[in-house]
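Dear support,

I submitted the protein below through the web form. The confirmation email said the job was done, but the results page showed an empty box. After a refresh the structure appeared. I'm attaching both so you can tell me whether what I see now is the final result or a partial one.
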Amino acid sequence: MELKPCLFHRLANRSDGNVSLAFGASSLSFTPKSIPLLESLHLITRLGWFVRWSNAKSESNGTVEIVVSRASSLPSWRFLKKFGFYNQTSKDWIYHNDLGWLYLDDIAGVETYTWMWHEDMGWFWTGNTYFPDLYLNDLARWMSWKGSRTTGNSWTIYDQVNKEWLDSEKFKVARLNTVFSKLKNTDQVMEFVNSSPLFTQEERKVISSEFFFRGKSSTLESKGFTLAF
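What the results page shows now:
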């Protein structure tokens, strides 16, 4: 069914911008007016209207939605319908509004799916096609993200295998236990601890001393970590 002039007239008379639509076309263009709102991230979002169109024989209702993915006043920021806001800072790195800093294997893949890396979660597979679902490489399972790391570090992640929500500390334990289960001796454990951003320099020193004098680490045990040897 063709979009009739009555629909175009309703959209074109919006107070927050101008709409252009070719007669009989299936797509339209929305140009927001230059108002203070455009100086914020609220510009890059979804715009929707309830509309009605008709021909001589019938009348139908529907919704028109426009996803505004970029704004000239915020050239490095992007918006994707499922993935949300992110700042493309370089060819490899983005700053996601909820996840924080992410390294991408293929930055163009964020519009569909690609491998991403975060210092707290390691490598995971997601993108606009799947988010908020993530496939965690270290845990070899799908999880669902909720919350924000960039506003008070209040976030949880849902384990789709064990059917439970994990806060940041429980997730850290689950992830590291998976990693530790593959390590066969103290040398391999210390190599991982010393290279992982999940441990502070002081924790590394204490864990190293515990292994040297006792052959085990009470610090790791107190955090709920289980070694395979």
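Response: this is the final, complete result; the empty box was a page-load delay. Residues 180 and 227 are 6 Å apart (CA to CA).
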